[in-house]
Amino acid sequence: GAGMAMVHPTWVEAQPGSDDLKIAIIGAGSQGRNLIINCLRIPALHFAAVCDIWPYHQKYAANILKKYDQPVNVYADYRHMLAEESDLDAVIVASPDWMHAPHTMAALDAGHHVYCEKEMSNKIDDARQMVLSARRTGKHLQIGHQRRSNLRYHHGIKLIDEDKVLGRITHVNG
Questions:
Q1: pTM of the predicted model, to two decimals?
Q2: How far is CA 149 from CA 55, 113, 155, in A?
Q3: Sign of the CA dihedral running 110, 112, 113, 116
Q4: What is the dihedral of CA 153, 158, 159, 162, to 10 degrees?
């Protein structure tokens, strides 16, 4: 969000090499920027493109990457990006949930592996089509489910359900 502090990695001096992965991101809002920052900690990943419909998000993400010697091509239309950036290895999908399926399937069909943020899709049939696209193309598809697999959340559920540290819950605000 507007008032959030960005934590920028202070390492990553690696230059692109032959074994490096060339990646792009669709969706450069708050979650997309968080993923960009974390990807910058992986020396073998190099961004080639950023795609977002909002000019502010495009510029913000491109400026982060430029700061870390990863100048990128910027796109507003994911279809144009996938057509132009044919030598990508993988695409990160961090767009709004309702666009995860079309963005993921287009990236798979373009021949790229995909990491897609949670939730996979807000429609069961779209999620099924994503899986079928991955199988058909032979490309890897990974869906982020940190809050379902991270031990801190399992611990929290245990505290509430088993240890009853909160007693009877009557209201929750989020």
A1: 0.77
A2: 34, 22, 11
A3: negative
A4: 160
Q: How far is CA 57 from CA 9, 14, 76, 158, in A?
A: 20, 25, 10, 38
Going by C-alpha positions, the residue among 60, 112, 57 that lies closest to residue 81 is: 112
146 CB contacts (<8 Å, ≥6 apart)? Answer: 118
DSSP state, residue 82: H
Distance, in Å, from the CA atom of 119 to the CA atom of 95, rounded to the nearest integer, reads 11
Tens-digit pLDDT string for the chain (174 aa): 344 444 444 444 444 556 789 999 999 999 999 999 999 999 899 999 999 999 999 999 999 999 999 999 999 999 999 999 999 999 999 999 999 999 999 999 999 999 999 989 989 999 999 999 999 999 999 999 766 677 888 898 899 999 999 988 898 887
Task: Round to whole Å and give the CA distance between 155 and 160.
Answer: 9
User: For residue 26, what are the contacts with CB-CB under 8 A and spacing of at least 6?
Assistant: 51, 52, 78, 81, 91, 92, 93, 94, 95, 103, 107
- For 117, the 3-state DSSP assignment is coil
